Amino acid sequence: MEMDVQQTGDQLTGIIRFYSSLKFSVWSGPYTGLISRVGEVSVTAKEIALIGPSDFGGSDVFTIDTWQSALNAQQDKIAGQMTLTETYRNLFGPQVLAQTADFEIKR
Prior knowledge:
Blueprint: E1 2-3, E2 6-8, E3 11-19, E4 26-35, E5 41-53, E6 59-72, E7 77-90, E8 93-106
Antiparallel strand pairs: 1-3, 2-3, 3-4, 4-5, 5-6, 6-7, 7-8
């Protein structure tokens, strides 16, 4: 994961990029954030999508519908939750796989 960060006062904006060794190598999208008075950072990204060719015609679409996290400077980690949705076609026709994932990234 990589984040470009622009800060204006207590507001953050930028682009977040996710890297994968699976079918999709990278996907990215904008995010916004806020720095609290005690130095905690909260970040939200919505509708980050990557579209690739399907093995059965059409397109595979992998979407991070909501990505929310918080960084606590004292603990040096970012933790949060994201909703992942994959829409694809296989031998049985169109499929939708949706899951919610908790994550914690330590520095």
